[in-house]
Amino acid sequence: MIKKTFLFLGSLFIILILVLVYLSTFGVETDKFNKRISEKVKATFPELDLKLDKLKLILDPFNFKINVVTHNPQIKIKSKSLKLKKVSSNYNIISFFKKKFGIRNLIFETEYNNLNDVLKLARSIKDSPQLLILDKMSNNGKLYVNAEININENGQIKENYQISGELKNLSIKLLNNENIDDISFKFNHSKDKSNLTDVSFKFQDLSILSNEIEIKKNKKVYAVKGDINSPLSEIDDKITQKYLNIPSLKNIIFASNSNFSFDIGKRFKFKNFYIKSNINLKNAIYSLNNKNLEKFIPKFKNTIQIQNNQINLEYKNNLTISGGGDLSISKEKEIIKYNIKKSKNDFEVNFNVSLNKTPIKFYLLNFYKDEKSNGKLSVNFKKNNDKISLDNLSFISNNDKFFIKKLDLSNEYNLIDFAKLKFNYKDKNKIKNDLVITRKKNHYLIEGNNFSLSNIIENILTGSNSNKTKLFRNKPRNFKIKFNENNIDKDHIIYDLQGEITVNKSEIDKLNLKSKFYDGKEIFLSISNKDNQKITTFYSDLAKPFVKKFKFIKGFEEGKINYSSKKINNISNSYLNIYDFKLKQLPALTKLLTLASLQGISDILTGEGVRFDEFEMIFSNENKLMKIDEIYSIGPAISIMMDGYIQNDELVSLKGTLVPATTINKFVSSIPILGEILVGKKTGEGVFGVSFKIKGHPDNLKTTVNPIKTLTPRFITRTLEKIKKTNQ
Asked: Which residue range(s) make up the domain with 44?
């Protein structure tokens, strides 16, 4: 009996062991617990409706748990349904008998469901402001999730959950109504940390990629860091204008590779932003309508093009940009290197640019570098709200050198002050120039061995304003001048130039200069401003180098010159007087005499020249127009009177009267009593005078001539005045 009992108990134990092994290995399928599980889930999460097929139960006898697995279940949230591939959980057996919440974890894998449906599920489990905002902003998007959630005996989710998955084709509408489209990434999320990998999205048609983005929560702040890359793309000009606020910057094509980090606080407030980028800027065009720049770069067409620049950018409180590549200023490629630092109110720039193919022109210095000469410009300046501080500027082209040190400009590019300017160069006339301007305590010293005054004198004599540039602002500046030699032109030099200049509000307020030629002939110039009138006085014992500045007068020899001008409201009225001179090789006058059959005088002119006793010119200048009210010249052979205008060295238009001296003498001698007193009784044979017109470019003047038998009252009056003055 005992033996049978042991045999029965042994068999029962073996069967029990086999059952336990079977249940723990293969399990059993049933639907008896479906209703109870669904009710328990709904009791904890009222908005969820869990629909299960048969459950597969696998016993865990050592932990008194039953592992529950089901395939293709459904979770309904109101009218929305989520598709799952697999759901598994373990159920505490003791909790079942005690009628307590027995589910200890939830492991599930989903199909690709609509993101908004998943967000509603997440919010029903544990809502947050972030989930609410994301739910409202998101559109479309498919989400795959693989999650493991642990639950305590009270039915609450433990903090050691793990959620991973993938998001595809999401669109988010930002608070400013702009969209981020085609968002796709893989993710791994735990309580205080999220990792995004294989990230891609589009913003304003710009493709953005990232290998990894990490988000960590620290109290109420989210710390975000990662990398972000952009393949080679062209940016719409509207984006540049809106986000960079640079409407003049267009046609940007670039690729970038960046690392970044920032913190997000309450109300999505960004702070502690940091970014480090490597940028390949293939193309960018910046429009710059700057008339001052056009004066220095003759071929500048209001655009600067940047190509193939490799740029390193770093921002952490301050912005630093360094790089280099191709730069086109006048359609020719140059090489530029730069380093830029920007803080809140300050902006510092260092750059070097080659100017090997770009022509450069400094008008007042009469300097021109053509496109065949190499050149290099180096600049270091700082800019703030008040001014632009140029620490150093150098321009070097072969043996020509220009240096500027400690120069301050206003934000309107007016000169405030400088420490030193040093120029050493050959000008367009191949004249060697040596000039240094140094700031002293209460004045500036301008000195050098030699400096050409050619263009400066031309501006003074012709009253040209076409190249006027505002210089100093604010207080007056005083300059003391001391030169060993100064070229008037390539053939004439003056020596020991000394004097002073006072500049006030970008205008010469007072000027006094004196010098002499090699043979002791004197020259001086004075300018004064009084009662809004600018008065200029100039005298030289040698007139030739200054008369040459008037383009329509050629073949001038000897003579003395006296010039005065009064300028009011940008209009100058001038008087020029030249005496004891002669003209030779004057094409227009030679042709005029030939056409008038005055061959004898024409022959003299092409030989030794025709002598004149005096030349007077009354004219005015406004902007680019010189209006000649009267030119009158009288001499032993001929007298000339004419008027007209000259337009910016592009057009000469003159008309007048030419009369041989014999005709004048004959006419004057016929005047009773007065004629005998002025010219005597013998006058010789008279000839007809001529009226003429001279018109065209200064290098290609056209002349027309008509004989005249009578002289104009104006000509007669002026001639009588001169003859009377001569005989006194």
From this structure: 31-170
